[in-house]
Amino acid sequence: MTVVQNDLIELKNLGMASVNILNAIGVRSYEDLAEMGAVEAYNRIKARGIQVSKVMLYALQGALLNVHWNDLAPELKQQLVEDADQALEQAAVS
Fold first, then answer.
1. Inter-residue contact 12 to 63 (CB < 8 Å)
2. CB 8 within 8 A of CB 14
3. Residue 72 DSSP class
4. Which fold has domain 7-93?
5. Which residues contact 69 (CB under 8 A, 6 or more apart)?
6. Average pLDDT rounded to a whole number, residues 62-77
């Protein structure tokens, strides 16, 4: 029996559009997203030229933590943005 493991649609903050975007970068399950992390997933989405706001970054982290993105602490949101920006800068240098 083959089981399609696409539990992404069941996660908080993720609708069909977000799931399709995640599938486009190779994320097909919670485990894939957890392994990649919200920052890396967000940066891969942006690297593909897909226009997303910082809310996508927050939504991904919230999905991993099972909380609504708006309930993330402001400090965590700021750290996510800093981490994403730093990763992009490092990628540009390499």
1. yes
2. yes
3. S
4. DNA polymerase; domain 1 (1.10.150)
5. 12, 13, 55, 58, 59, 61, 62
6. 98
Residue 53 has what DSSP assignment? -
Question: Any idea what DSSP says for residue 29?
Answer: S
What is the token pair recorded at 63? 């999905």
In the block, which residue shows the tokens 């602490």?
A: 73
Residue 4 confidence class, pLDDT cut points 50, 70, 90? very low
Nearest to 58 by CA among 14, 2, 28: 14
- Domain positions in the chain are 7-93
Coil, helix or strand at residue 67 = coil
**Geometric angle at alpha carbon 61, from 34 and 81, rounded to 5°:** 120
Question: Is 40 in a helix, a strand, or coil?
Answer: helix
Interatomic CA distance for residues 42 and 29, integer angstroms: 15
CB 68 within 8 A of CB 13: yes
AA letter at 57: L
Q: Is 35 helix (H, G, I), strand (E, B) or coil?
A: helix
User: Any idea which residue has 């910082």 for tokens?
Assistant: 54
